[in-house]
């Protein structure tokens, strides 16, 4: 299994981050998802040498740990801190220009938003592989929490109708798994580089999505193997299914 550690940098000293990366390196973890993290109160005191944005972290990793493979976050429906969508694309390009190997997207529920995002990236000169973020809805409260965490996310009427029609928690979960599995099936058919399943520590939903799709051999499908993602263009197979979890 290839492991990619999510590393947020907001509020951290450079030495702290260097120490964490050195430890990962010692453990043989060579994949980092480089993130800013959610900025806290604007009045919070930041360390003098703090990283303001993920692009700074990417540049730091690239110079200090050149063998690390780096993923960064992308937002098909936009990130809440930037209203101007064209400027936001410049910020995403800055992360790639700083050395990111691939992009993993925020969750989305309508694949058209993802395909459009991929085209906008191409037009902006961003040519790294883009991994699609899929979050199965497993409960009404969870859906509301997700909407709070990923503020720009659009919940399509078809999904909301199906969730509200479901009679009880178990059936809401089935609706969510079915919706996510259909999204993943369509993404695979459209030969995307990989899928990142937001498990939120509910591995059951992720396993059921994979099973529904007939993907049973996890040793073959798990892991953001950068070479596999790059080689993806040469094969019709999905390069990576990434399962996100908290440790
Ligand atoms: C796949 C994925 C996994 C995630 N995993 C985690 C996790 O494990 N833990 C966690 O805490 N959070 C996680 N997040 C959430 C993420 O930390 C937040 O969305 C955070 O608010 C932004 O992080 P970022 O790396 O995208 O930041 P950035 O790329 O730095 O962007 C943040 C905002 O700043 C803007 N910006 C960038 N550069 C500039 C600039 N030079 N000037 C002005 N504005 C600028 C961007 O447009 C954007 O609006 C994840 C998100 C995704 C998509």
Structure description:
- This protein is α/β, with parallel strands linked by helices and 247 residues long.
- It has one domain: TIM Barrel, CATH 3.20.20.220.
- The protein is built from 10 helices and 7 strands.
- It has a 7-stranded parallel beta sheet.
- The longest helix is centred in the last third of the chain and has 21 residues, at 169-189.
- The model is unreliable at 233-237 (pLDDT under 50).
Keywords for this structure?
single chain, 247 residues, alpha/beta, TIM Barrel, 7-stranded parallel beta sheet, 10 helices, 7 strands, 15% strand, globular, binds flavin-adenine dinucleotide
Task: Draw up the topology in text.
Elements: E1 4-8, H1 14-26, E2 31-35, H2 54-64, E3 69-74, H3 85-97, E4 102-107, H4 111-123, E5 130-134, H5 140-149, H6 157-165, H7 169-189, E6 194-198, H8 203-212, H9 218-221, H10 226-231, E7 240-244
Parallel strand pairs: 1-2, 2-3, 3-4, 4-5, 5-6, 6-7
The chain binds flavin-adenine dinucleotide.
Flavin-adenine dinucleotide (FAD) is lined by residues 6, 8, 33, 35-38, 53-55, 73, 79, 81-82, 88, 91, 95, 104, 106, 133, 196.
């Amino acid at each position: 299994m290839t492991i990619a550690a999510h590393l947020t940098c907001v509020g951290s000293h450079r030495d702290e981050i260097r120490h964490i990366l050195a430890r990962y390196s010692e453990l043989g973890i060579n994949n980092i998802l480089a993130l800013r993290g959610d900025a806290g109160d604007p009045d919070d005191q930041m360390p003098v040498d703090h990283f303001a944005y993920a692009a700074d972290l990417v540049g730091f990793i690239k110079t200090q740990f050149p063998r690390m493979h780096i993923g960064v976050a992308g937002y098909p429906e936009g990130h809440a801190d930037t209203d101007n969508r064209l400027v936001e694309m410049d910020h995403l390009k800055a992360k790639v220009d700083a050395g990111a190997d691939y992009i993993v997207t925020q969750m989305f529920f309508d694949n058209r938003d993802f395909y459009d995002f991929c085209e906008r990236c191409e037009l902006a000169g961003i040519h790294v592989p883009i991994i699609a973020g899929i979050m199965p809805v497993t409960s009404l409260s969870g859906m509301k929490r997700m909407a709070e965490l990923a503020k720009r996310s659009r919940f399509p009427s078809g999904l909301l109708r199906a969730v509200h029609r479901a009679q009880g928690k178990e059936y809401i979960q089935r609706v969510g798994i079915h919706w996510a599995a259909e999204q993943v099936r369509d993404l695979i058919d459209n030969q995307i580089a990989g899928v990142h399943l937001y498990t939120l520590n509910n591995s059951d939903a992720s396993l059921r999505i994979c099973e529904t799709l007939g993907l049973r051999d996890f040793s073959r499908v798990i892991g953001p193997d950068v070479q596999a993602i790059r080689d993806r263009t040469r094969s019709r197979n999905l390069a990576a299914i990434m399962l996100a979890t908290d440790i």
